[in-house]
Design a protein that fits this description.
Helix content is 9%, strand content 39%. With 127 residues, the protein is mostly beta strands. GO terms for molecular function: structural constituent of ribosome.
């Protein structure tokens, strides 16, 4: 059964809120891809919508939006998620996860795209 952490960023004030999810709540994320919008009611943020922006698996390998599926892939990178070159023209073969959230995910990154009527802090305090 899937169990992971969802980090939700609030672009308006720059804060990030972390939620541990498992069971049915975690299953709402499994099978979704980077860029997909999801109702955040399952996280206790009723009226909010979040967008998946990335994540990592149990070994810390990042998800990349340009790699299909949820399996591991060894790709040659010139920069971006998973590799930061130190000199011009540097390339490196790196193992990354695909853009689809799977049961191997450990952390899912998301951002708020649509706000509810109550502030996030109030909704978190109610739990």
């Amino acid at each position: 059964m899937a169990e992971f952490q969802v980090d939700v960023a609030d672009p308006e004030d720059g804060t990030t809120h972390q939620f541990e999810v498992d069971g049915q709540t975690a299953n709402r994320f499994v099978g979704r891809e980077i860029g997909t919008e999801i109702d955040a009611g399952a996280l206790g943020l009723s009226g909010y919508t979040i967008e998946i922006t990335g994540g990592t698996d149990n070994a810390g390998r990042p998800m990349r939006s340009d790699v299909a599926g949820q399996d591991l892939s060894s790709v040659l990178l010139t920069g971006g998620v998973g590799f930061n070159p130190t000199v011009d023209g540097e390339r490196k073969r790196v193992t990354v996860r695909g853009r689809e959230v799977g049961s191997d995910a450990r952390q899912i990154n998301a951002k708020i795209v649509d706000r509810g009527s109550q502030p996030v802090e109030e909704l978190i305090d109610e739990e």
